[in-house]
Design brief:
There is one protein chain. By secondary structure, the chain is mainly α. The protein has one domain. The N and C termini lie far apart (about 45 Å).
Amino acid sequence: MLYGVAADLLVGVHLAFVGFVVLGGFAVPRRPWLAWLHLPAVAWGVGIELTGAICPLTPLEQWLRWEAGATGYDGDFIARYLLPVLYPAGLSRRAQIVLGIVACGINVAAYGWWLRTLRSGRPRPPRQAPKTGL
């Protein structure tokens, strides 16, 4: 049972990482320090997609599921969890390359917008103080 819970938690972490890779660039204008975490994550995520490699979290999840008594699965995380939503036919090498290019393009656009805003001299949106509830 513990292995199954660990596998489910790992899937959540994996999904959060994929979301951060694809959309994290939009958080950088408000929190510029995130770029130090986001850019390596993008390089990793896009690199995995473009090279056709398998993320190390995928075999770890498969092993946890096997230890829990469930059967593992073939393929990678994207094919197992994301492509059934995005591409019901399954993951082909071409689809994997397209996903990598789309993730890269979204981030180039997000960072380009942020850098253009910085160069134009327009002030960043002000941070709001947290509400204290008093």
